[in-house]
Amino acid sequence: MVHADASNFVIGVTKDQAYEQVLMQAEGLFDGQRNWVCNLSNAASLLWHAYKSLPSPSNQVNWAGFYTLNPLSPSPQLILGPFQGKVACQTIAFSRGVCGVAAATQTTQLVRDVDAFPGHIACDGDSRSEIVVPIVVSQEGTGEKKLVAIIDIDCAVLDGFDEVDRVYLEKLGGLIGRSCDWWLWSSGDRLDC
Amino acid sequence: MVHADASNFVIGVTKDQAYEQVLMQAEGLFDGQRNWVCNLSNAASLLWHAYKSLPSPSNQVNWAGFYTLNPLSPSPQLILGPFQGKVACQTIAFSRGVCGVAAATQTTQLVRDVDAFPGHIACDGDSRSEIVVPIVVSQEGTGEKKLVAIIDIDCAVLDGFDEVDRVYLEKLGGLIGRSCDWWLWSSGDRLDC
């Protein structure tokens, strides 16, 4: 199978079925590949094409992707990762907007109306609803859960997401968290090629 | 201006004008931001939306994104970076396919018919033509040019690209090369968060 076929979803499937396919394809793509940039790039593509195969409101998703922890920032900050959709804000402080709150609290934010969310950051004025799911990894030894990234999905209509999205995106977040080596860059690690 | 507006291209512009907007927007987005994952993610979005605003064949582009050097590979290898489009091959050996040849030779590959290109890798059976532009950086001191990434654009029709694409994508490759810190991960740099 050529890789692009993983993005082909049958029209008429339910949201549960589409997410099940995303999880199955993601698991296959991550098998033997733990590079987080590579895996998040393919995961964003899977999600985008899954939503586009579904009826409204899911097919009104207008941004699907990731922000990761920015280890170069002196204060806790997210930085833009791989995504599908229009150009997005580069950095987001923890606690700022929907993404920042999800990162700071390590809890999923399911926002039916972004304009009603205090401090919402309007990267795209078309976005009306949003779901953000934290990706956390347990530290060896202590078991303490540390945030490494978030899944961020925007929708151009109100009430774009429900509990089905929450359940499956949290499953995907768990899979991504344990399937990648979270080697982020540091100032001392400039590529010496 | 919200960030998403950078992806909005006026219908009816020429290809030159669309690429000029890509370059201008990219320069603005990279100003003060040298994180390569962040910048490549936004650059893929700019390119994708530019192509979709143009007449055929440009609007038939079905993949736009990046592969980077994989420092973890013992042999020279590209690994998937941020992109827009369907799921893609994770790794490509130097010299293999259009991307591999561009990487190994550090020269743009403008391929009017991918099926006629020896060793073409069919990540997506829909792709008919392709352009791949190397992104190189000069090493301090020696000035030796080292490959850090490639721009890869696929099109679903034959003859999707011409000299205009080559000229502007090489300009974009130069801008990206000097605008990012190419801090790639290494096995000794696991995030200790």
Automatic annotation (TrEMBL), chains A, B:
SUPFAM superfamilies: GAF domain-like
InterPro entries on file: FRMsr_CS, GAF-like_dom_sf, Phosphatase_reg/MetRdx
GO biological process, one term: cellular response to oxidative stress
GO MF annotation terms: L-methionine-(R)-S-oxide reductase activity
Gene Ontology CC, one term: cytosol
Protein name, per record: GAF domain nucleotide-binding protein
Originating species: Pseudomassariella vexata
